[in-house]
Amino acid sequence: MPEPQPVMPRSWRTETKPHKFCPGCGHGLVLKCLGEAIDELGIQDRAIYGCDIGCSLLSYNFFNVDSVQTHHGRTTPVVTGIKRANPDTICIAYMGDGGGYAIGSQHLVNSAGRNENITVILANNTVYAMTGGQMAPTTMPGQKTETTPYGRETGPTGYPMLGPEMVAAITQEGAYVARGTIANLRQLKSYIKKALENQMNGRGFSFVEALAACPTNWRTNAKETWRFVEEVMTQHFKIGELKNPAAEKIVKPAH
Ligand SMILES: Cc1ncc(C[n+]2csc(CCOP(=O)(O)OP(=O)(O)O)c2C)c(N)n1
Ligand code: SF4
Fold it and tell me: What pLDDT, in 10s, does the model give residues 216-227?
């Protein structure tokens, strides 16, 4: 009897699987939620997927949808241009925390400020993973990285960037903003679905940060990886919806 195959989202390209992420990587889980969300909303034929430089680029051929891979930090403006030229498409920009909060932060801020009708999904793994695990804007206080070998000191380097909180503060009415985690995939998928529905309903900017894992650069085993995601990251990054126009109220993240 042939081995039962794992169920993949219909919008994934089966011929490019197994994917190229390291074992235990968070990117694959976030993209599984995105794939299932695309399937359940029935938007595969009009979805456009953009990915950044960083480990997210390994997903350039991940989906069976029109896809584009951009320069580092530039996925948001590329996807904005595609959406403006083709308003009937559903445009998704996928990136890491370095791409969204460091080199591409100006694009995130300005597209959010203009209430562009696109969906940005950002995997926060607390490091610049693809280049070998340097400190990122989201590195946790005390976290050891290639460039903070004694742990991140908040004095000279500040505190981890609170992306969804910033986006919630600068967006107009109509924006959807949430932070989910790979430790709760059902919830993360529901946030991504609501973000896509926000765009489908023409309400404007939608943004989901997903707490993700990089065991390769964290140098953690499976148990340590999950402990870092569930217990350490959530001390600073609160999970929940920050703005949900469908619910017509601002929801405080759960503490
Ligand atoms: C303009 C430019 N600057 C710097 C780099 C080098 N670079 C490639 S990936 C990367 C960091 C990626 O980190 P992040 O965006 O957090 O994604 P991750 O790899 O963690 O998923 C950097 C600095 C580049 N490719 N292009
Ligand atoms: S280096 Fe980290 S983020 Fe990149 S594929 Fe490996 S586990 Fe994932």
Answer: 999 999 999 999
Measure the CA–CA gap between 41 and 149, rounded to whole angstroms.
45
Ramachandran region of residue 155, left (φ > 0), alpha (ψ -120 to 50) or beta?
alpha
Expressed in angstroms and rounded, the spacing between residue 179 Cα and the centre of ligand 2 is 20
Ligand nearest to the CA of 131: 1
| CATH code reported for the domain at 14-247 | 3.40.50.970
Which residues partner with 93 through β-bridges?
50, 120
pTM value surpassing 0.85 = yes
Residues lining ligand 1, Cβ inside 6 A: 53-56, 72, 96-99, 103, 123, 125, 127-131, 136
pLDDT tens-place string over residues 50-60: 999 999 999 99
Distance CA 112, CA 19 (A): 31
